[in-house]
Amino acid sequence: MVSIEGVRAKMGEFVLGGIDLEVGEVEYFVMVGPTGAGKTVLLEVIAGLRRSDSGRIYLDGREITSLPPEERGVGLVTQHQDLFPHMTVLENVMYSPKVRGMREGEARRRAYEMMELLGIRELSERKPSTLSGGERQRVALCRALAAGPKVLLLDEPLSSVDPPLRRSLREELRRINRELRLTVLHVTHDREDVFSLADRVGIMMDGKLIQCGRVEEVVMHPANSEVRELLR
Fold first, then answer.
1. How far apart, in whole angstroms, are the C-alpha atoms of residue 189 and residue 136?
2. What is the DSSP letter of 37?
């Protein structure tokens, strides 16, 4: 379970303002909002890539607010995938567990296990430049999963994938959530991600979490007209 208490972060004129949120164990939580709402900033704070100005973050009751990224037990997949172009798929996937202290042999075994799970083992010796958008996204997912995170953070994971592939990738994400029993926090601006994936949904606007609940509750009882329009 992820608990976020009063997290605030200021960047220039933008303020992520006092976020309070709990994401339950094995829950698939989708955070939706317009561009510039602060969704990515929140993920970066949880992952430890950006410092918060105040507030606390807990993972399964353990405070991780001040821990470095590699010690948090969190995996992050960005919308740009950020694969290393000079490395093979196998080397990319092994990178994450090795950074977290896993030995070479164990990192390799874990990498193959995750590639098998996502059906890309045959791509192990390929370079990222030779892959399709869907293949690159699966490699990025494998890399995040290979370190064995307790929480998977997804930043617009389907935005760079062609529309025909989005449905199959949504199915993969839901399967990963269930089979690996991972807590997932997925941020998006696409309402189809909400309706296809979410156990619960949060609405972010202007750096604030303005509504949170089960999808049907938020759809039926939106906090304001902006929420209604966002999920229409």
1. 21
2. S
Helix (H, G, I), strand (E, B) or coil at 56: strand
Is the entire prediction scored with pTM above 0.85? yes
- Tell me the domains of the chain and their CATH numbers: 2-73+150-230 (3.40.50.300), 84-147 (no CATH)
Contact between 195 and 215 (Cβ < 8 Å): yes
Burial category of 13 from C-beta neighbours within 10 Å (exposed 0-12, middle 13-18, buried 19 and up)? exposed
**Residue 171, C-beta contacts closer than 8 angstroms, at least 6 positions apart:** none
Nearest 5°: phi and psi at 173?
-65, -45
pLDDT tens sequence across 183-205: 999 999 888 999 999 999 999 99
Q: How far is 126 from 123, CA to CA, in rounded Å? A: 5
Cβ–Cβ under 8 Å, residues 158 and 172: no
Place of tokens 């979410």: 198
